[in-house]
Amino acid sequence: MQFLWKYIDDLVGKGLDFNQIALLLFYASARFVPIALPIAMLLASVMVFGKLGEQYELVALKSAGISLPRMLFPITLLVITVSYGSFLFSNYVMPIANLKNGSMIYDIQKKKPSLNIKEGIFYKDIEGFSIKINEKNTSNNTLKEIIIYDHTSKSGNDKVIIAESGIMQLTPDEKFLTTGESELPMKLTAHAGFYLPYNKRHPDDGYFSPNILFQQQGAATTGNPNARQLNFGFYTKKGPLVAGLWYRFEDAIIAIIGIQAEYIRFGYSYDITTSQLSLATGGAHEISFALNLDCKPKRVKFRPLNCPKF
Asked: Which of 33, 53, 65, 143 is the most buried (most CB within 10 A)?
């Protein structure tokens, strides 16, 4: 109920169906499992042993020669099993549920363009257009088998657009709806770095390489601060061992370690989230493996051409 009252303004009037609301509540309720489970176990244990004591079952068990530790052994085993299951749930399931819950709330707040379009039914909420699709993917706003009737000229169905697939998205300033055909702002990228070998006579034995990368797309025109990104860090190599540390400004810290041989490269990286998403995710793991095959280039035989003589 607290969740509904908190986000009631974002849910009302967005055209959400029952399945979407139920899925949102399911993801939101996952965070209460580690909180409610210990209390439920405590109340269940008190009620069970209270009932046994009320009906003199404990006295009967003691008279039969069963000691108190032996009576508590089954419930102790159950508590350990439930505790381990709660740990696995908190470590693996709850971060994913919190991430999906936050993503759904964000999509609802930003009103995903494809959210209200139903499959196989004409959508007429966009003035001057009638849209019909046969399949959609709400996770990335992808629509398939699209038919669009343009009525902006008010002269009937004189303009029809048919497409195998398409994407509906918002402009960078989130003020206008586009179909993926609008011109994106120019993207600027600046990169600088150094290559410092540990041994100048044998530079392949090891090196230290600091780098900085700056990217910007449309921030000057749209005023969106998220359109800028600054990365800086370093790589280092000593023998077959490769390591690195990067910082993505206001987003994540990336630690990298790997092994590089003549034909094999293996690497592992871990992103430590430093943004607001750190409450919903514990970071990201990435493992890479590359095999370099020593393929000889294919020789191409050229047939000589006889040049004319004058």
From this structure: 143
